[in-house]
Amino acid sequence: MASSIQVTTREAAAALRISLRTAQRWAANGKLNATKNKTGRWTITLTTTSLDDFKPFQIDKAREAIEQAAILPTSRPGIYTAVSSDGTTTYLVHRAACTCPAGQKQRACYHRAAAAILAAASLTRRAA
């Protein structure tokens, strides 16, 4: 089941690996599914696989990890490298699995949420 998540231009830029200004231009030109709010800022809607398995704090941590470049794509499609919260360990992550301690116990982790958001951004970039 697909769902959507709304992100800022800064988060979209980090997820799409483009500059903030390019994300703003793409939003203005209709290349991204975006709306302008009352304050003049863009909100971009990404269609993702269901994020229902994740708690709100996990989605927030996933967004923060994306913005801080703590999760990056590898040369293998859909596989990402995630840096632990303390910065000492890296994990391999896919939206269905993660090598972090929580992922090894088949629990939902914020790395998987970030991978789902990044996968949605990747599809958005191909469409743009």
Describe the fold and architecture.
By secondary structure, the chain is α+β, with helices and mostly antiparallel strands. 40% of the residues lie in helices and 25% in strands. It contains five helices and seven strands. A four-stranded antiparallel beta sheet has the order 4-5-6-7. It has a three-stranded antiparallel beta sheet with strand order 1-3-2. A hairpin with a 5-residue loop joins strand 2 (34-36) and strand 3. Helix 1 crosses helix 3 (56-67) and helix 3 crosses helix 5 (110-127).
Primary descriptors:
128 residues; alpha+beta; four-stranded antiparallel beta sheet; 5 helices; 7 strands; globular
Question: Could you tell me how far the N terminus lies from the C terminus, measured between alpha carbons in angstroms?
Answer: 23 Å
Low-pLDDT stretches are: none
The spatial strand order of the largest sheet comes to: 4-5-6-7
The number of helical segments is: 5
Fraction of residues in helices? 25-40%
Count every beta strand, where a strand is a DSSP E run of 2 or more residues. Answer: 7
Helix/sheet category: alpha+beta
Work out the radius of gyration: 14 Å
Mean pLDDT: 87
Task: Write the SSE topology.
Blueprint: E1 2-8, H1 9-16, H2 20-28, E2 34-36, E3 42-49, H3 56-67, E4 71-73, E5 80-83, E6 90-94, E7 97-98, H4 101-104, H5 110-127
Antiparallel strand pairs: 1-3, 2-3, 4-5, 5-6, 6-7
